[in-house]
Amino acid sequence: MDHADFATFFNEKVKARGYSLKKLADVSGVPLVHLTNISIGRYSDLPPAPYLRGYLNTLGPILDFDAQTVWPEFRRVHLVKASGAEDELPRNRFAGRSRRVRSAVGATLAFVIVLGYIGYQSGRIFGTPEITVRFPEEDMLRVQESAITMSGELTNGSVLTVNGENVPLRDGVWEVRIELRPGQNTVVLSAKKFLGRETQLTRRIFYETPAGTTTTPPLP
Questions:
Q1: 147-155 and 173-179 strand pairing
Q2: What is the pLDDT of residues 147-188, one digit of tens each?
Q3: 152 and 203 part of one domain
Q4: Are 51 and 31 in contact (CB under 8 A)?
Q5: Beta carbons of 41 and 34 less than 8 angstroms apart
Q6: Which of 93, 104, 138, 177 sits between 20 and 30 A of 55, alpha carbons compared?
Q7: CA distance linking residue 175 with residue 157, whole number of Å
Q8: CB-CB neighbours of 94 under 10 Å
Q9: Last residue of a domain, one of 89, 114, 146
Q10: Is there a domain that residue 135 lies in?
Q11: Rounded to whole angstroms, how far apart are CA atoms 103 and 96?
Q12: What digits encode the pLDDT tens for the residues 181-200?
């Protein structure tokens, strides 16, 4: 490649990537003024060789050209100001920035992962308990027995009470025996979560005493 035409080559590469010079400066970290000078072929205003070589090494992977091939041509036609025998920057100049970039990306990724996990678990941590009653399914049940066994499941909850009494949970499944009084009995199920809300559910059970059975009304 004739290096006098490098500006055209550079502009075509920038256009092929869909970049503007401003965007390329943001992506590469190369100052916009230097990108502009390259774009218009004003090589005399470019920085000394070590800096320019570093910029070309940075731009090469972004714009898909071989900086190692381009650089000797710049040196050969004296398009840049020399600053020493080797015209090289310290080896760790760009490596340090690369490490900082990788560290920042790693920290950001870790933060996003933690934030996503908290969002995923928020329903379990702060959500509302859900009570499922398997028996009796209907709200108003009529029975002729003096006791029934209620059962169901508790989801996203840690404590379940029935009429104020704690009910043991086994993998979220619960079962409790309810003693009934003649007439209507109201059973209140309440579920709580340490950092969440409270849910209540009511079942009404009407105990019909069999004909000929004498019952003693409960004391007030």
A1: antiparallel
A2: 989 899 988 887 889 998 989 988 889 899 999 989 999 999
A3: yes
A4: no
A5: no
A6: 104
A7: 15
A8: 15
A9: 89
A10: yes
A11: 11
A12: 899 999 999 888 766 678 88
